[in-house]
Design brief:
By secondary structure, this protein is of the alpha+beta class. The chain has 2 domains: 218 residues, PmbA/TldD fold, CATH 3.30.2290.10; 222 residues, no CATH class. 21% of the residues lie in helices and 39% in strands. The protein has 9 helices and 20 strands. A 6-stranded antiparallel beta sheet has the order 3-2-1-4-5-6. A hairpin with a 4-residue loop joins β4 and β5. α3 runs parallel beside α4. It is globular, with a radius of gyration of 24 Å. The protein starts with 8 loop residues before the first helix and ends with a strand.
Length: 453
C-alpha cells in the first residue's frame, strides 16, 4: 500500500524507535481508528442513539522470547512515552515463551471493502432508517402490530500496522446493517420473528424485504403446537444451519486443539462429516463482512478449506499456534477485538458451501419430517464433545409440504453425528453474525430425535 495512505506513520515510527531504544528486539504497532453509529427504534421513537469515534494504538514488544503489551488512546509525546515504558516493563517480567514473536509473513495485496457512497446519507437520514424499518415491519401483516426491536447500525474502520521489520500497511472497511424483531399476536398468543439486511453502506440495505421477512416469520408461527416426541428427518433453514456451523468455530481453532478443548483434535485427514459437506474460512470473500486483506498481525488472509467433502483438512492458525504446532503455517486468522487487545485466533467468513438443490427440493426429498427455522440455546453446545440439546421452532412437513407450526420442542445429538447425517445441502446460502460472519444453506439431515410433549 502506498505510504500516502498511511495516516499514523509518524506516530508509529516514534513508538517503534522508542521500543528499540528500550531494548526490544522486535516491536509492532497496531492502530485502529473507527466511527460507528447505532440507532434503536421503539414504538415510533428513537429509543437510543450511539455515535462514537475511537482511536488508539496497541504496542507489542519482544525480547528474549518474552512479550510485553500496552495500549493507549493518548497520542501525545508523553502518552507515547508511557506506552513504550509500560510495554517494555511488561516484557521484562513476563515468562519467556519460545513461540512468541512477530510473523514471518508480511501484508500483501488489498481488498475493496469501502463503499464509495458510505457518506451519501446524512446522520439524520440514517437515524430515520431505524424508524422506517420499524414502521415497515408493523405494516406488513395485520397480526404484526409491534416490533420488539428495530436497529440501524454502521461503522467505518481503519487499521494500520507497523513493525521494526519494515512493515507499514493499512486498510479501511465499511459496514452497515439493519435488524428487526417483530411480534405477531393472536388472542393471548405471541410469536417472534426476525430478519436483517446488510451491506457496506446504508444505500445497500433492503428495508422492505427485511421488514416483510420478519413479519412473515412471526405470523407463520401463530398457532404453533408442541408435538409428541419422534425421530425424523430434519431440514434446517439457512439461518438455523448457520447458527449450528458457528458453533464449530471453537473446534476448528488450533488454539483449542492444542489445549485439548476441541472435538476435532487429532482428526486431520479423517472423515468428520458427510461427503456433501465442505466448510471454508474465506477472509477474502467479496461480500463477507469479516473480509480483510491481512489479519490482526499482518499475515495475508486466504481461503482455507477446513472440511473438504467431509474430510477434515485444516485447523485455523495464527502465527503463535503455527509455531507451536511445528509443521503448520498461519492461515491468516489472527483477530483482535480492538487496539486494546493482543492478537488471538478467530474465524473470518466461515461458510458451509451451498449445493444445487433448492429448499423446496429438500423438503420434497425429505417427505415427512420437521423444518427447523430457529434454534435456541446454542451457548449450551459442548465444544469438547459436541453434544447439544437445542430448543427449536419451525413446521411439520408432510409429503414434502410445509404444514402446521411447532413450538417448545428440542433436538438433541452431537455435532459430528449431525454432520455425518447430512444427506443434502441446499443452494440457498445466507449469512448471519456469529463468530466472524457465518454462512450456510439449508441442510437435510437424515434423522434426529426431536422431543416434545
Amino acid at each position: 500500500m502506498s505510504p500516502a495512505a498511511l495516516r499514523f506513520a509518524d506516530v508509529a515510527t516514534r513508538v517503534l524507535d522508542g521500543a528499540a531504544a528500550g531494548g526490544a528486539s522486535d516491536a509492532e504497532v497496531y492502530v485502529h481508528h473507527g466511527a460507528e453509529l447505532t440507532v434503536k427504534a421503539f414504538e415510533g421513537e428513537v429509543e437510543s442513539l450511539t455515535s462514537a469515534e475511537s482511536r488508539g494504538l496497541g504496542l507489542r514488544v519482544f525480547a528474549d522470547s518474552r512479550m510485553g503489551f500496552a495500549y493507549t488512546s493518548d497520542l501525545s509525546a508523553e502518552g507515547l512515552r508511557r506506552l513504550v515504558d509500560t510495554a517494555i516493563s511488561a516484557c521484562r517480567v513476563n515468562e519467556p515463551d519460545e513461540h512468541a514473536g512477530l510473523p514471518d509473513a508480511v501484508p500483501d495485496g488489498d481488498l475493496d471493502l469501502v463503499a464509495l457512497d458510505f457518506d451519501a446519507r446524512s446522520v439524520e437520514e440514517r437515524v430515520a432508517m431505524a424508524l422506517e424499518l420499524e414502521r415497515l415491519a408493523i405494516g406488513v401483516l395485520p397480526e404484526v402490530k409491534r416490533a420488539a426491536s428495530a436497529v440501524y447500525a454502521d461503522e467505518r474502520g481503519r487499521n494500520e500496522l507497523y513493525t521494526t521489520r519494515g512493515v507499514a500497511a493499512a486498510f479501511e472497511a465499511t459496514v452497515a446493517y439493519g435488524y428487526v424483531e417483530t411480534i405477531a399476536e393472536r388472542g393471548e398468543e405471541m410469536q417472534a420473528g426476525m430478519s436483517f439486511t446488510y451491506g457496506r453502506s446504508a444505500t445497500a440495505l433492503d428495508l422492505d424485504a427485511c421488514a416483510r421477512e420478519a413479519a412473515e416469520r412471526a405470523a407463520g408461527l401463530l398457532g404453533a403446537e408442541r408435538l409428541p416426541s419422534r425421530t425424523v428427518p430434519v431440514v434446517f433453514e439457512p439461518w438455523a444451519a448457520a447458527s449450528l456451523v458457528g458453533t464449530l468455530a471453537s473446534s476448528i481453532s488450533a488454539e483449542a486443539v492444542q489445549k485439548g478443548r476441541s472435538l476435532l483434535a487429532g482428526r486431520i485427514g479423517e472423515a468428520v462429516a458427510a461427503s456433501c459437506v465442505t466448510l471454508v474460512d474465506d477472509g477474502r470473500l467479496r461480500d463477507g463482512l469479516a473480509s480483510r486483506p491481512w489479519d490482526a498481525e499482518g499475515v495475508p488472509t486466504q481461503r482455507t478449506e477446513v472440511i473438504a467433502e467431509g474430510t477434515l483438512r485444516s485447523y485455523l492458525h495464527n502465527s503463535y499456534t503455527a509455531r507451536r504446532d511445528g509443521s503448520a503455517r498461519s492461515t491468516g486468522n489472527a483477530a483482535r477485538s480492538s487496539y486494546r487487545s493482543t492478537p488471538e485466533l478467530g474465524p473470518t467468513n466461515l461458510v458451509l458451501l451451498p449445493g444445487t438443490s433448492g429448499p423446496q427440493e429438500l423438503l420434497a426429498r425429505m417427505g415427512d419430517g420437521i423444518l427447523v427455522t430457529d434454534v435456541h440455546g446454542l451457548h449450551t453446545v459442548n465444544p469438547v464433545t459436541g453434544e447439544f440439546s437445542l430448543g427449536i421452532s419451525g413446521f411439520v412437513v408432510e409429503g414434502g409440504v410445509r404444514g402446521a407450526p411447532i413450538r417448545e420442542m428440542t433436538v438433541a445429538g452431537t455435532l459430528l453425528d449431525l454432520l455425518a447425517a447430512v444427506e443434502a445441502v441446499g443452494s440457498d446460502l445466507r449469512f448471519t453474525f456469529g463468530p466472524g460472519f457465518v454462512g450456510a444453506p439449508s441442510l437435510l439431515v437424515r434423522s434426529l430425535p426431536v422431543s416434545g410433549a
